[in-house]
Each structure stands twice: as structure tokens, then as C-alpha cells.
């Protein structure tokens, strides 16, 4: 029986095969955030010198990449990335996701938007039939915490401030508990339109292109 850590490693290793396919001296790889992304970063070190470098979705991932000697570029210096590789907190069969458990949702969405393909790496426990059991993160500008919380209650969710947490952009995170999300694209649009919300953690309007889900029987690929 593989442990969850071993399953994450399997998913990260599977994503490295996608790097192999695109590796070239001018290739820049988009890199996500989280414990699964960390394993991918460690494996990416083997590509040092074979790719131009990376763009990171968080200060945490940027530091890990730099410590391994991989160049990290500012996104403004890069106009194309063939792939963005990141984990997820939940993913459904349409490859719509909830992300932001690590609080990096805004930068993740921005970096992913510049990549041609989003490769989601996770263990199979992240696959759900309907998104919403995992509390949905919102990055919120601090002056709007109360007004956004009231809006969340009107939508039927329970807003919980992530105490003591400040995002890389200097904002706060509200995690929405108990919100049913039958139509993820509509919910993403609605939440992103609330004044004071920087980004919501739904990645449905632009979901993953490929999911590499590690199971006890090997990688299950969803396209
Ligand atoms: C961070 C994220 C992560 O991708 C998500 O939380 C999954 O993390 P892990 O790989 O540690 O389970 O969205 O903001």
C-alpha cells in the first residue's frame, strides 16, 4: 500500500515526463505551490541547463527553485510557457479545481493563464464528483473582509478568516465552508466580481488540461 507521500511522488514524477517532451534551451516551465509541487520542483532540478528556467506561483516555490539552482523569472519577462504544473485541493471529472489551500491562488491563476497547458498533479483522493467539500479560498483585500464575509453568508457559505495568514500579495484569505458548487464556472464569475475579492480559488473558467492522478495501481490520466 503506497502512502500519500509516495502517491504524490508518483504524480510529480509523471509530470516530469511532460517536461522531458518540451525541454529546450528557451523553455520556461510554470511551477505551482504546495507539497506535491515541491516534489515536482525537486525533480525539475535534473533539467538544470536543459531549460531556460521557471516562473513560480509563490515566493515559497521561487525560493525552493532558486535553492536548487534553477533560474526563476519574473512573469513579466516571459510571454510563453508550454506547461504549468501544480497540485489541487479538489478536482472534478471536467478538470475544474479548487485551489488555494496554500494561499497562492492568485499567482497560481496568473501564471497558469500564460501557459499553454495546465498539468494538475495529485493523488486520487483529490478527485470529487462535485466541488465544495474543501473550503473554497478567497484572496481578499483587507479593508473588504467584513463586506465580503457578508456576501459569502448571503450566498449560503460560512466565511472563516485564515488567522495570521498574509498572501504574497499582502492580502488576507477567507475560506468559505459549506458552499455547494454545482455550477463552478458561474460561481467563479460571481465570486470574482465581488468588490474586494482579488481571486477565488475556483479554477473552472480555465481548468486543467491534463490531470495526473496517482492511484495504488499507477497514474490515472484525465484529459
Ligand atoms: C496552493 C495550492 C495547492 O496546489 C493545493 O493546496 C494542493 O496542495 P498539496 O499538493 O500540498 O496537496 O493550491 O495554493
TrEMBL record:
Record-listed E.C. numbers: 5.3.1.6
Q: Which CDD domains match?
A: RPI_A
**GO terms, molecular function:** ribose-5-phosphate isomerase activity
Residues bound to substrate are 33-36, 86-89, 99-102, 126
State the Pfam families in the record: Rib_5-P_isom_A
Among its keywords, does the record have Isomerase?
A: yes
The record, for InterPro entries, names: NagB/RpiA_transferase-like, Ribose5P_isomerase_typA_subgr, Ribose5P_isomerase_type_A
Q: Which HAMAP family match?
A: Rib_5P_isom_A
What PANTHER family is this protein classified in?
RIBOSE-5-PHOSPHATE ISOMERASE
Q: How does it assemble?
A: Homodimer.
Protein task: Catalyzes the reversible conversion of ribose-5-phosphate to ribulose 5-phosphate.
Q: Which family does it belong to?
A: Belongs to the ribose 5-phosphate isomerase family.
What is the official name of this protein in its record? Ribose-5-phosphate isomerase A
* Organism per entry: Pigmentiphaga aceris
Q: What lineage, starting at the top, does this entry show?
A: Bacteria, Pseudomonadati, Pseudomonadota, Betaproteobacteria, Burkholderiales
Amino acid at each position: 500500500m503506497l502512502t500519500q507521500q509516495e502517491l504524490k511522488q508518483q504524480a510529480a514524477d509523471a509530470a516530469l515526463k511532460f517536461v522531458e517532451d518540451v525541454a529546450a534551451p528557451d523553455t520556461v516551465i510554470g511551477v505551482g505551490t504546495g507539497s506535491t509541487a515541491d516534489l515536482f520542483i525537486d525533480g525539475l532540478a535534473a533539467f538544470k541547463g536543459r531549460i531556460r528556467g521557471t516562473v513560480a506561483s509563490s515566493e515559497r516555490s521561487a525560493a525552493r527553485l532558486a535553492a536548487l539552482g534553477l533560474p526563476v523569472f519574473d512573469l513579466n519577462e516571459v510571454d510563453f510557457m508550454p506547461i504549468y504544473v501544480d497540485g489541487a485541493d479538489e478536482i472534478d471529472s471536467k478538470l475544474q479545481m479548487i485551489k488555494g489551500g496554500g494561499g497562492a491562488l492568485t499567482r497560481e491563476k496568473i501564471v497558469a493563464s500564460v501557459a499553454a497547458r495546465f498539468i494538475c498533479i495529485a493523488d486520487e483522493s483529490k478527485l470529487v464528483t462535485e466541488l465544495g467539500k474543501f473550503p473554497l479560498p478567497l484572496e481578499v483585500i483587507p479593508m473588504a473582509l467584513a463586506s465580503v464575509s457578508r456576501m459569502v453568508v448571503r450566498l449560503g457559505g460560512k466565511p472563516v478568516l485564515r488567522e495570521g495568514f498574509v498572501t504574497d500579495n499582502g492580502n488576507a484569505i477567507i475560506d468559505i465552508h459549506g458552499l455547494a458548487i454545482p455550477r463552478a464556472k458561474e460561481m467563479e464569475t460571481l465570486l470574482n466580481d465581488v468588490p474586494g475579492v482579488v481571486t477565488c480559488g475556483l479554477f473552472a473558467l480555465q481548468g486543467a488540461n491534463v490531470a495526473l492522478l496517482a492511484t495504488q495501481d499507477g497514474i490515472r490520466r484525465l484529459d
